[in-house]
Design goal:
Elements: H1 9-30, H2 38-45, H3 60-82, H4 88-106, H5 108-112, H6 121-145, H7 150-169, H8 175-193
C-alpha cells in the first residue's frame, strides 16, 4: 500500500486528485493541451508518473476534470443572473453578460482550448456535456421568443458571445465596454427575431 500523507486513505486520495488537477490546470493555462503529458503532470504535482494512473485512466481525463472544476460555479452564476427576471428578453441579455463575466474570471481562451484535438472518451464526454449544458438554456430562451428561428438565433448569439470573449482576452476592449457592446448586440438580435402579434413573423 502506498504511503499516505493524510488521516485517511480517502483524504489522501482527494489530496492527490487535487494536486493532479491543479497541475493539469497550470499546464493547460500556460502551455496548452499539447503540453499535458504524464511527465509534465508528474513533475508539477510531485506524484510519481506511474502513480497517476491509480487516479485517472488517462492524462486526457484531467482535461475533463479541469472543465468540471469551473462548470458548477459558472452555471450557478449564469442561472442566478437569469433568475432576476422572468422576461425572456431580459434573460437573454443576462445569459450573455453572465457568461462573458464568467469567461473573464476563468480566462476564456485556455479553458475553451481544452477541447482541442482528439480526446479520450471520458474527457470528450465531459467537455461535450459542459458545452451542451451551457448552450441548452440559450435554445430554450430563444424558443420562447421565436420558436421557428430559435436555432439560428441561438447560433448567432453564441457567435456574439465568443467574439466578445476573445476581444476581452486579447485586451482589445475592457470588460465594461464589452458588456455594453454585447448587451446592445443581443438587443438588436432580439429586435431582428422578435415575433409580432399578428403574423408570427420577426417584427423587424
Amino acid at each position: 500500500m502506498p504511503r499516505i500523507n493524510a488521516p485517511t486513505v480517502r483524504e489522501h486520495h482527494e489530496q492527490v486528485m487535487t494536486s493532479l488537477i491543479d497541475a493539469a490546470e497550470q499546464i493547460l493555462r500556460e502551455e496548452g493541451p499539447g503540453a499535458l503529458t504524464a511527465g509534465a503532470v508528474s513533475s508539477r504535482a510531485g506524484v510519481a508518473r506511474n502513480s497517476i494512473y491509480r487516479y485517472v485512466e488517462s492524462i486526457d481525463d484531467l482535461r475533463g476534470l479541469v472543465v468540471e472544476r469551473y462548470m458548477p460555479g459558472w452555471f450557478d452564476a449564469v442561472q442566478e443572473a437569469m433568475d432576476a427576471s422572468e422576461d425572456p428578453h431580459e434573460q437573454l441579455v443576462a445569459w450573455a453578460i453572465a457568461n462573458l463575466e464568467q469567461a473573464t474570471i476563468a480566462g476564456h481562451g485556455w479553458l475553451m482550448r481544452i477541447g482541442e484535438g482528439r480526446l479520450k472518451p471520458n474527457a470528450a464526454r465531459t467537455v461535450g456535456r459542459a458545452h451542451a449544458a451551457l448552450y441548452a438554456g440559450l435554445d430554450r430562451l430563444w424558443g420562447r421568443i421565436n420558436p421557428d428561428r430559435a436555432r439560428i438565433a441561438s447560433i448567432m448569439t453564441q457567435g456574439l458571445l465568443v467574439a466578445m470573449m476573445n476581444a476581452v482576452e486579447r485586451r482589445a476592449v475592457g470588460l465594461d465596454e464589452a458588456r455594453e457592446e454585447l448587451r446592445g448586440a443581443v438587443l438588436l438580435l432580439i429586435d431582428r427575431y422578435e415575433v409580432d402579434d399578428r403574423g408570427g413573423r420577426p417584427a423587424g
